[in-house]
């Protein structure tokens, strides 16, 4: 039996007006995501990755094509969809605990507090419940935004470069944690990242986009066993393939030799 697609993007085109002139941002994007899948998206800066996530989330409209979640238009009823933005977007006048609990207003207080506590602990922010966003570092604010995204228990979680502001160790810890949560909760995740290793480590499939107007160059299926071994030959082969796509339209070459 075929698994149904929870996200279906079909022949999507998107333009923005810049100086009253249309600028093509996304061109003929088609992507199907199955329930419980982890999709990573890589591509040059400005190629339309954030715009694509915002369209899937229903925050930004589009000209042509079709975008559906479980067969519903993104503005209609459908699976609960959350987004962690590239900038953390915490509300500056609310304490961290209230930012994380922001979407949980319909829960009884005790349950809400417990959820907030659990998710702050998960991202390593226990003890900062009563701080305000201005009192946290960039990476800590980003972790609070991830906690807010997860606490809402969405069926689909869209993550826009969520670990960009984190140090290498915290980043690796958060990557493991997000995989654990995804496996446990069965959340469908679509994550934009500029980190090629991260795209391979997390993605069941990696969407490689061209420079603007963003088109899909390739969708690479990842062997999960190989992706777990960051120093392995197969991991290196995925990496080379993605870099080659990145450098396709330039004179640069990806010539790092791997000693395995
Ligand atoms: N609201 C908007 N109005 C006009 N142009 C916009 C708007 N939002 C984005 N753009 C333009 O659309 C293009 C794609 O932007 P987007 O933020 O989707 O890129 P991105 O791939 O996420 O880049 P990055 O990797 O740098 O985050 C950019 O040229 C940007 O200037
Ligand atoms: Mg972006």
From TrEMBL:
The molecular function terms of the Gene Ontology recorded here are: ATP binding; ATP hydrolysis activity
Entry EC no(s): 3.6.3.-
Q: What are the UniProt keywords, alphabetically?
A: ATP-binding, Hydrolase, Nucleotide-binding, Transport
User: What region holds the ABC transporter domain?
Assistant: 7-236
Pfam families on file = ABC_tran
- Class of this enzyme: hydrolase
Q: Which domain of life is it from?
A: Bacteria
PANTHER family linked to this entry? ALIPHATIC SULFONATES IMPORT ATP-BINDING PROTEIN SSUB, TAURINE IMPORT ATP-BINDING PROTEIN-RELATED
| Protein name per UniProt | Aliphatic sulfonates import ATP-binding protein SsuB
Q: Which organism is it from?
A: Roseburia faecis
The gene behind this protein is ssuB
